């Protein structure tokens, strides 16, 4: 479009006519770039989710391998189960961390989809605006 405007008799008029298209294309480029950013953030959060889930599963296997001690008085059982209880606490911590990472990845997925939608609409509108002006509203490229 810029080369078309520059090649016509009054380029300043045509550039002014095409200004909304240029702004629309700029929005499309920025939105396309932000979609890549959101996609990278989503991949990072998914990686954290899967790694933390795997670690949680490893801890859960270790917990299942340790028998729970039942004794009276309870203080003796608590002392004997101290290592197992620490693993259970770590498992709950890993689970919460994995859930937070998954929730963040879903938010980034929404941001990614919104950016792609905005980008596509901006490019289409940037191309359609001058066509609509010329075809339906009788605008002229030359004064």
Name some characteristics of this structure.
mainly alpha, 85% helix, rod-shaped
Would you kindly provide a written description of the structure presented here, covering whatever features stand out?
Keywords: Membrane, Transmembrane, Transmembrane helix. This protein is an all-alpha fold. It has four helices and no strands. α2 runs antiparallel to α4 and α3 crosses α4. The radius of gyration is 30 Å and the shape is rod-shaped. The mean pLDDT is 91.
Helix/strand order, N-terminal first: HHHH
Largest sheet: none
Category by helix and strand content: mainly alpha
Number of strands: 0
The low-confidence parts are: none
Percent of residues in helices: over 70%
Cα distance, first to last residue? 17 Å
Overall 3D shape: rod-shaped
Radius of gyration: 30 Å
**How much of the polypeptide forms β-strand, as a percent range?**
under 5%
By DSSP (H or I, 4+ residues per run), the number of helices equals 4
Mean pLDDT: 91
Give a quick rundown of the structure.
This protein is mainly alpha-helical and 143 residues long.
What layout of secondary structure does this protein have?
Layout: H1 2-7, H2 11-65, H3 74-80, H4 82-135
Helix pairs in contact: 2-4, 3-4
